[in-house]
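Workshop exercise sheet. Pairs work together: one partner reads the sequence aloud, the other fills in the structure field after running the prediction. Swap roles for the next sheet.
Pair: D.N. / O.F.
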Amino acid sequence: MESREINRLTEQVIGCAIEVHKQLGPGLLESAYETCLEHELRLTGLNVQRQVAVPVVYREIKLDCGYRIDLPVENTVLVELKIVDEFAPVHEAQVLTYMKFAHKEIGLLINFNVTLLKHGIRRFRL
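Structure field:
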């Protein structure tokens, strides 16, 4: 996918996340934001899945350890949601690792537990 198309797609995802945050505000469980964001993304016509397994690959062995991507969008953007006071390095490491194992070059880490959502968004590119 072209860089311009990827930027447009991530902008759409962020716009949907902002809309969900405007409607719900902070303070809910991650599952509520995940369900609402999935719905909002579908309303815009985007192909989105929910809780997709990502196996850990060690050498030639695939291990099903129960890791899941919150919302892969258009089979291109990996979206990981959090409800935390602030991002920790482990949250960023998680997204980068999921991107590696899922073979996705773009990832969004979104924290809905903020007063202004733009302060809770991180974009990653491998």
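Discussion prompt: The chain is about 40% helix and 25% strand. What would you look at next?
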